[in-house]
Amino acid sequence: MTVATKNIIDTYSYLFEGLDSFTKLELIERLTKSLKKEKNTKEKEFFKSFGAFPEDKSAETITEEIKASRSFKDKDFKF
Q1: Which domain of life is it from (predicted)?
Q2: Is residue 70 part of a domain?
Q3: Is position 13 within any domain?
Q4: Considering the domain boundaries, does residue 57 fall inside one?
Q5: Number of neighbours of residue 13 by Cβ within 10 angstroms
Q6: Sign of dihedral through CA atoms 11, 12, 15, 17?
Q7: pLDDT on residue 22
Q8: Which end of the chain lies in a sparser environment, N or C, as judged by fewer CB atoms within 10 Å?
Q9: SS3 56
């Protein structure tokens, strides 16, 4: 744990001391949900990164389409 992380935890702990038990339980519940959501979201995003082309085209077809869509401008440079 870094010094900055420890300071953040200490600061939040100090803020939570003044809260009633119900509010503290609500915070615990929300933190727990955010941890579960974060893990699921990261895993889903990771697996979504594969197969970035959702179409059923082959890799060769996609490559040909990309190359065909390229356009170049001929420009003479005068030095």
Answers
A1: Bacteria
A2: no
A3: yes
A4: no
A5: 9
A6: negative
A7: 94
A8: C
A9: coil
In a domain, 67, yes or no: no
Which residue type, as a one-letter code, is found at position 30?
A: R
Q: How many CB atoms lie within 10 A of CB 27?
A: 13
Could you tell me how many helices (H) and strands (E) the chain has, helices first?
A: 3, 0
Using DSSP's 3-state secondary structure scheme, residue 17 falls into coil
Tokens of 78: 């005068």
Q: What is the pLDDT of residues 21-63, one digit of tens each?
A: 999 999 999 989 888 876 667 777 777 777 666 667 888 888 8
Using DSSP's 3-state secondary structure scheme, residue 53 falls into coil
Residue-number span of the structural domain to which 22 is assigned: 1-47
Q: For residues 22 and 69, what is the distance between their CA atoms, to the nearest angstrom?
A: 61
Q: How many domains are there within the chain?
A: 1
pTM: 0.42
